[in-house]
Specification:
7-stranded parallel beta sheet, 28% helix, alpha/beta, single chain, Rossmann fold
């Protein structure tokens, strides 16, 4: 069951998401001594991640993974790891960063990442994004990648550039201890209505989610 946390503006939603993420990281560290966190790409999480860098966490025991990566050359401005470098990894003292080598191509990069996460029983937190079509990570509606149950999968024929990507699968995201999404703006209001109506969308196939949104995205809170 989704949990909706709605705030008056995007900044408040971003700060609340950062507080939630920090608490989940601390919980994982307390319980297991190490924490494995999946991070999103795009521009929406940048402010939240900046708030997270202000927290006093045991950074050396937190491991970071990408929910997906775009098959561009390393360092390309549109890669997800470039945004994460700028807003999080370059701003904390110790980073255990596990990048997807998408520059090698979708198939090979997915194979390497599957081997890398093989020993992880589950991720503590899957912090995800969500598109206006209901996609999350690089799991797009009606794409054949939705049927691939391997932990990390190649994605072809993406409706958004680039066409080739690498993504954690629905299976992997469902197995995470906790899932959260930060989204905002009136452009997301229609897809959120469809999500609340339990439409069969990729974002509705990964289990319960704690949502952080502004009032433009969720103008009326459903009971």
């Amino acid at each position: 069951m989704h949990t909706w946390c709605v705030y008056s503006d995007f900044d408040k939603a971003s700060k609340a998401a950062a507080d939630f993420l920090a608490a989940k990281i601390e919980e994982g560290l307390h319980q297991r001594g190490v924490c494995h966190v999946i991070l999103p790409g795009g521009n929406t999480p940048a402010r939240c991640l900046s708030y997270l860098t202000d927290r006093d966490l045991a950074w050396s025991r937190v491991h970071w993974y990408l929910g997906d990566e775009r098959c561009y050359p390393a360092g390309h401005a549109e890669r997800n790891d470039v945004m994460l470098d700028k807003n999080l990894w370059s701003r904390i003292p110790v980073t255990n960063v596990h990048r997807i080598q998408a520059e090698l191509g979708a198939e090979e990069a997915a194979r390497i990442y599957r081997e890398l996460i093989l020993g992880i029983d589950f991720f503590d937190v899957a912090f995800l994004g969500m598109g206006e079509d209901g996609h999350t990570a690089s799991l797009f509606p009606k794409n054949e990648a939705l049927q691939d149950s391997r932990t990390v999968i190649p994605v072809y024929g993406s409706p958004k550039m680039p066409a080739e990507r690498v993504s954690l699968s629905i299976t992997t995201l469902k197995n995470a201890q906790c899932r959260m999404v930060l989204t905002a703006g009136s452009a997301k209001a229609d897809i959120i209505r469809r999500i609340k109506n339990a439409e069969s969308l990729p974002i509705n196939c990964i289990g319960d989610i704690t949502w952080f949104t502004d009032e433009e995205a969720v103008p009326v809170i459903s009971p």
